[in-house]
Structures are given as C-alpha cells and as structure tokens.
Amino acid sequence: MIRQQAFAEKRKMLKGGLHIHTTRSDGKVTPEESIQYYYEQGYHFLALTDHRKYNYKNFRPDLPVTVIPAMEHDCAYHYAGYHTVCLGLSKEEGNGYEQDVRLASEHFTDEESLTAWRKKIYENNNISIYCHPEWSGTPARVFENHTEHFAMEIWNSISVYGHDIDKDASYWDEILGQGKVLYGVAADDTHSIETLGKGWVMVNAENDVKSILDALKNGAFYSSCGPEIYDFYVDGETAVVECSPAAKIRLHSDMHPTKVERSADSSMVHAEFKVTGYEYVRATVIDGQGRYAWTNPIFLDGRVK
Length: 305
Ligand SMILES: [Zn+2]
Ligand SMILES: [Zn+2]
Description:
This protein is α+β, with helices and mostly antiparallel strands. It has helices spanning 31-40, 111-123, 133-136, 140-143, 157-163, 172-176, 209-217; strands at residues 2-3, 13-20, 45-48, 66-67, 70-77, 80-88, 106-108, 126-130, 151-156, 183-187, 200-204, 221-224, 229-235, 238-246, 248-253, 259-262, 268-274, 280-286, 292-294, 298-299. A hairpin with a 2-residue loop joins β13 (229-235) and β14.
C-alpha cells in the first residue's frame, strides 16, 4: 500500500496560509490585522510574502500563530511574469535574506539570467513555490524544467476572484505526466480582506517552522477551499479517497480521461478507483457548494521529491 504523505503518519493537521501581502508592500491589511484575521479563521501558521521584501517578524506574538520566514520574489521573463513564494528558516539557521530590504525588480530575456536569478533563492537556503501561472501568462513549458520549486500554485484566490483563472490546478498534470514530482498549493495571495481565507494548505506537521517546511517539501499536505480530506492511498490496484461530504470526487492521472464519482445529495465520503497500470494519481474533492480540495500526487513507484 502507498499512502500519500499527508496521511502517512497521524499528527495534527495544521491550517496554513503561504501567500499573503500586507501594507509592507501593496496589500491593504496591516501585518497585525492580517495575522489576527487568519487566526480567527483557524489558521495555525502564515507566511507574510510581501513583494521582494523578506519577513521574519511575528507582528502578533500575543497570538498562537507561527510565522514562516518568507517573501514573494518576482521578475519578468520575456512577455510573462515569473513569481515565486520563497520560504526559509531563521537567519541564525542560514537564511540569507535581510528583513525589510527591498530587492530589485528585474526583466530577463534569456534563460541563463533567469537561472542565475533562481539560483540565488536556493543559495539563500530558501525553498520556492511557482505562483499563479495563468495570471502570469506562463504555460507549463516556462517553468516545467525548474525542478527546484517544491510546489506550484493550483489555486490563487485573488486570480480566481479577480480574473476567474488559477482555480483548478491548471498545467499541473502536464508536469506530473512527465514524471516530475511537484506538489500543489492553494493560496490567497491576499491583497485585501475580500480574498482572505479562501484557499489554504493543511499540513501534517508539528507547529514549528522547521517541521512545517519539512512537511511541505515532502508533500505531507493537501490544499483546500473548503472540503476536508482524511485519507488518500493506493492499495494494490485501487485508489481510495476518504473526505468530508462531497458532490464529486475526481481521480486525475497520467491516463486519460479523468475519472469521476458523483453523489446527487452531496453526501459521498468515500470513493474507490481502479488504477491498473497508472504512474501517478491525485484526487480532487468538490463539495455541494462547488468548493474544491486537492490531494497531492501518489507516484505508484513510491517516488517522492
Ligand atoms: Zn505574484
Ligand atoms: Zn502575490
């Protein structure tokens, strides 16, 4: 049996926001208010990812919310945007970025310059998420060989509410289908209160920065806009999904077309799919209100990042 890492070891599932802007850059909500609003919605950890401006600081130490050192780094590449959320440990633990130093906005037209730019993120001991590909106008071929990203955004609340894009794992299967291990993250990209708390990750970790980052890198999480997922595994030739009441459960894989189970009264909490000969599988749960949750993939040869 292969169980997706989010459900492999029973620990508390922590709710987290990995892409949040505040008044430190172009967000409308202060860091203090942002942490409070997310705390009130049950979040355990947050990354304040202001544009090209790193943050280590917990602006609300009175609240039991873990702040992950982070920023959103970006450049332009040809006609497209190239945005990444960068996450790391503390400065004492080797993070190379400085608090509040605003980095330059650059425009590249050759792959070598973009590669050098990306390398600096990893030299500074950060891990990265490729952000909002549709909003940036980047098809998978722009970033599919940039395998240092541990994840890509499969839902970005501001892109969904503002532009009706980046809402259901665009391009993800193109990359997974090539055998590349890349995890999927739902995030708000919060700039104002309207898109706060619409998409998040549920991470199987202890509530400290190192444990959360390790779990993210290992794919020990799922993403959601509402539904909960309790288990996802492949036993023999059967993939099994356990979740909160759902209207539809889909199984995505390297085989086409996608499979789907339906429940007329939105009460399905379990689904099974035959997966003979598949290389990878992942599941999407859709509840009666049309809200999504996504598992990360299981590679049937046991591969992980
Ligand atoms: Zn962005
Ligand atoms: Zn952003």
